[in-house]
Amino acid sequence: MSSTDLVGVRFVELADAAAIAYIVNHYIAESTANFRTEPQTAAEWEQDIAQYAGRYPWLVAEYEGEAVGVAYAKPWNARQAYDWTAEATVYVADGQRGRRVGSTLYRDLLKRLEAQGFRSVMAQVTSPNPGSEALHAAFGFELVGTIKDAGYKHGEWRDVGIWQKTLTDLAGPPAPTASTASCSVRGGCEHLTG
Ligand SMILES: CC(C)(COP(=O)(O)OP(=O)(O)OC[C@H]1O[C@@H](n2cnc3c(N)ncnc32)[C@H](O)[C@@H]1OP(=O)(O)O)[C@@H](O)C(=O)NCCC(=O)NCCS
What we know:
Elements: E1 8-11, H1 17-30, H2 42-52, E2 58-63, E3 66-75, E4 85-92, H3 101-115, E5 120-127, H4 130-138, E6 142-153, E7 156-166, H5 190-193
This protein binds coenzyme A.
Coenzyme A (COA) is lined by residues 27, 33, 89-92, 97-103, 123, 125, 129-132, 134-135, 138.
Domain N-acetyltransferase: 7-168
Pfam families: Acetyltransf_4 (PF13420)
GO molecular function, one term: acyltransferase activity
């Protein structure tokens, strides 16, 4: 794949679980970007997709029919007052990094989170992770804090940066966030456009 090839972005399906596990398990094994140390099964991903993809955008990047990246959001915290704060994550398949797959996914993910009515999006980035730090900075995230020695992996204590992007500065009581399905591919949502 060259940097100019078009990558398609679509909503996740349960059938993507095995491909997502394959993409992410590489980073679990080979990097400190993900603090798991044991691989995840497709069944675990199916469970997460079923639990979260209706309320948060879950997107897959495809190239020639193959999944080459995934970006998704989850609750930052399950307590109700956090309902407008999401946590975003993105993984690009090994061998496809640096070809704008991550930024293509993140552009779409952030647009959708904003359209669905989320106020903030957070990301936890192990430090150092130059690719992820560059991606988050490029999309307007700010480093708002660092958890020192947050985890021990691959023989060292690792810091985790907490990054935040404010999507909207609307004051006053917020409307409930919209479901993923009520938002079109272009990012408009029924409750906002209708
Ligand atoms: C982080 C990641 C998602 C970025 O996706 P990508 O497709 O490789 O990145 P892109 O090609 O879209 O580049 C996005 C920006 O980051 C920069 N960038 C990408 N990789 C970089 C690197 N290794 N070092 C410095 N900058 C880098 C690009 O130059 C670009 O900046 P620009 O918009 O100013 O030109 C991807 O590299 C990845 O999956 N990494 C491993 C898993 C991971 O760390 N996930 C994030 C967990 S928080």
